[in-house]
Amino acid sequence: MPSLYLHRFSFAFTVVTFLSLSLPFCLSAQYSSFNFTEATVDSIQAAFRSRSLTSAQLVRYYLSVIQNLNPHLRAVIEVNPDAVTQAAKADLERERYPNNRNRLHGIPILLKDIIGTADKLNTTAGSFALLGSVVSRDSGVVRRLRKVGAVILGKASMSEWAHFRSETAPNGWCARSGQGINPYVASATPCGSSSGSAIATAANLVTVTLGTETDGSILCPAAANSVVGIKPTVGLTSRSMVIPISPRQDTIGPICRTVRDAVYVLDAIVGYDVYDSKATKEAAKYIPKGGYRRFLNFDGLRSKRIGILREGFFNFSKNSVQAKVFEQHFSLMRKNGAMLIDNLQIVNTSVILDYNQSGEELATVAEFKVALNNYLSQLTSSPVRSLSDVISFNEKHKKEEKIQEYGQLIFLASESTNGINSKVRNAISNMARLSSKGIETLMKEKQLDAIVTPDATVSSILGIGGYPGISVPAGYDKKGVPFGITFGGLKGYEPRLIEIAYAFEQATKVRKPPSFKGQFQIISDL
């Protein structure tokens, strides 16, 4: 048996053994005073303060749910063997310092398996090629999470290599965990690449999660799994020790069940990082004094000017459930004081939405090789040290790995590039012009606080310019498949978007937990 599989099976046995030996099967009876389903950060913190729940109990509960549901959902690649210890430490700190009011203290969080942790967890982008690699330090966002006392529960599954290896691989598929499953309708896409983070949040496998986005990888899975996703302005959160695609577009953000929880996470992870100094220094000017929590305003829609982008985005029939629901939402937004400017168009929308025409494909393919090779060079140890090594690894194991059915055409295209040449620089300049003449001009001329589109259809417009967006649950179609609504804005517009998204969420209360009906047998004791 190849060494790859010895490592794989050894690790899988370790996780299963840890779960089965360490966890009580039924936890609901032990902690019956606390309702774990759809638990929020605030409800958990209230339970901590009343001593009706400890962080260690919470972690054990989530680990038991993962044990029960993850074989079906494939949302988690691995759990942290030190998670219970971290939680117990948080409980002890709370005893010693009862006035600690940090919202994420003792709260379990799952990280997309692209976000580096200097601990016993792997960071592999869902690929066996990086299994056993060791990061030299915690990623910038993880360092901030540890500082506020969050518990790193484990790594969430994802579209392998952030869906940047093959154009034909399914959303949510990676070699290490298999195909991620939408918890609402198994046949529906979980979308990607932060699929596991969204699935885990939606299915209540954890309190909160982190994802990453280059173009749609937070907004799309959030919409597809009926959760909230915040794609921050590029540079607002550090990309240090995070497996990259494009430093020009990559950003890290929360995926949670509520806007409030997502804002708590955002507050914890934003800020300057010496290891990502240029981007985080430039974006630091956008961070409001006192953080983002103060923008959780029930009346946040009042007086907001919101532009509806119809053409190229609302691509469903007038009689569909989605069309009817969105019109209801727009009516409600107006009743809550928003001014909606309808049928707006961004110049050259069709060009921007075409990866090839906009220059996004050319630029990201070239940027990936440079950025990945730089990341791999920083690892303390690794089976691969370059994109070329990764390609060779995949070729060597192609008979053993199902993912080889999907090939690695994007990798091969990236490897054939030679740095950021004049063609790539022209492509980057073209995207800057498209952004300036497009969304920036529209929003400034119409004095908009936000634009609104369904699902993640606006992701390329936000992606190429480094702009923020927030996806909120919007509804479910006739089959029960979720869909979302995305509010987008210019760099630094997070406060406005949070006000709008939170007020919309509170006015609509769309989200409901998945029932899993017809998917698989759920053990009722959980």
Automatic annotation (TrEMBL):
Supply the Pfam families for this chain: Amidase
DNA repair is among the record's keywords: no
UniProt keyword terms in alphabetical order: Signal
Signal sequence region: 1-28
Enumerate the spans annotated as Amidase domain.
Answer: 58-456
Which Gene3D superfamilies would you find in this protein's record?
Amidase signature (AS) domain (3.90.1300.10)
Asked if ATP-binding is a keyword of the record, the answer is: no
Q: What is this protein called?
A: Glutamyl-tRNA(Gln) amidotransferase subunit A
